[in-house]
Design brief:
This protein has a domain of 160 residues. It is elongated and about 80 Å long. It is of the alpha+beta class and 371 residues long. The protein is built from 14 helices and ten strands. Strands 1-2-7-4 form a four-stranded antiparallel sheet, with helices on both faces. A two-stranded parallel ribbon has the order 3-10. The structure holds iron/sulfur cluster (2 copies).
């Protein structure tokens, strides 16, 4: 029989060696945090993210119970990689000509960088089990795509607690963390769950411009800028466009305002350093970017997910929200764009800029009552 304490140490040692900032082991059990999941799906809060609704043969939601989805899994190894870089937060920048791409998407695609590291740990575990003549070991690595809610297992692996903004937060590193998991058939020694340190704070809920955080720990993806600018295809509902502000890919607000991110350290992973032009990108550059340039600029970048038309749609909406009339000629051109969603969004943005300018012109200048 292998020594599971020894194997647990080996896993954590390997995780450190490949560059993960944190790692831990969670047992496979039906955590109370997962009880909300079927209700959340039934309420439609996952929007169009159909993969969240994947079910097993018996019709159970896979993500609601790892025990059902992967019956052989006994432990979940959770690894976290810090992606923070020494750049300002979105809440510290105010430039009407520029948009915001979420911090996690400035560098290389984390799916590849995290998976590469997970594979090394997985291989070491297999080698160690072979050396110890352990019974056949089963493992599976996932970055975002597994039939589990990673952050719940991250909590039980001691990596961090689930904040009221629904992100994983670590006391020392903050919340700029990518998660990767390895499911294993071994009963490794579990870590202790991380205690919740949100306390009475509600900054993330108060700061969310679209009220997507319906209550502490409860997000409606349909209202979340990250979902709308990345996952949502087609037109963004008009009633929510104002709230999107200058965001063109994702949103960091509920993390930027979090006190635990005030002193979040930077990453040592070179892959997450920003590509040129992606921190505070020029909105007209994105809106008028040719398809070829999009392919070149975002090869191997998470931004590819929103696709060429999606990024341009988002940039055009941000131009409409900018209050900056210098965008009018560009929006005039984009109103005739061959992509109907971009064209419609540009018409909306142009009308918004014109209306706000008209309103300003009609408002009489305040008269001074000073002597
Ligand atoms: S990512 Fe933005 S829109 Fe979504 S919950 Fe956080 S602050 Fe709100
Ligand atoms: S802003 Fe406050 S409530 Fe929100 S996640 Fe951070 S500590 Fe928790």
């Amino acid at each position: 029989m292998p020594d599971f304490t020894q194997l647990s140490s080996l896993v954590k040692h390997a995780a450190r060696e490949v560059g993960f900032d944190l790692s831990g082991i969670a047992p496979v059990h039906d955590a109370p945090e997962l009880n909300y999941f079927p209700e959340w799906i039934a309420a439609g809060h996952a929007g169009e993210m159909k993969y969240m609704e994947a079910r097993d043969d018996a019709g159970n939601l896979k993500r609601a119970s790892l025990r059902n989805a992967v019956p052989w899994a006994r432990s979940v190894i959770v690894c976290a990689l810090n992606y923070n870089t020494a750049q300002p937060y979105s809440t510290q920048v105010n430039d009407s000509q520029r948009g915001w791409i979420s911090r996690y998407a400035w560098g290389e695609d984390y799916h590849d960088t995290v998976m590469r590291r997970l594979r090394v740990i997985e291989q070491r575990l297999h080698e160690a089990c072979r050396e110890r003549e352990a019974p056949a070991l089963q493992t599976r690595c996932y970055v975002d795509t597994g039939p589990l809610v990673e952050r719940v297992y991250a909590k039980y692996a001691g990596v961090g607690w689930i904040g009221k903004n629904t992100c994983i937060l670590n006391q020392k590193l903050g919340s700029w963390l990518f998660l990767g998991v390895i499911l294993t058939s071994l009963e490794l020694e579990p870590d202790l769950p991380a205690p919740d340190r949100c306390g009475t704070c509600t900054r993330c809920i108060d700061a969310c411009p679209t009220d997507a955080l319906l209550a502490p720990y409860k997000l409606d993806a349909n209202l979340c800028i990250a979902y709308l600018t990345i996952e949502k295809r087609g037109a963004i509902p008009e009633e929510i466009r104002d709230g999107i502000g200058r965001h063109v890919f994702g949103c960091d607000i509920c993390q930027d305002v979090c006190p635990w991110n005030r002193k979040a350290p930077g990453t040592s992973a070179a892959e997450f350093q920003p590509r040129e032009g992606l921190v505070n990108p020029a909105l007209d550059w994105l809106a008028e970017m040719p398809a070829e340039e999009f392919r070149e600029k975002f090869r191997g970048s998470p931004v590819r997910r929103t696709k060429h038309a999606g990024l341009r749609r988002n940039a055009v909406i941000a131009m409409g929200n900018s209050g900056d009339r210098r965008f009018l000629p560009s929006l005039e051109r984009l109103s005739e764009d061959e992509d109907s969603v971009v064209a419609e969004s540009a018409k909306w943005a142009k009308a918004k800029l014109e209306t706000s300018a008209d309103a300003r012109a009609r408002t009489p200048a305040p008269t001074s009552t000073c002597p």
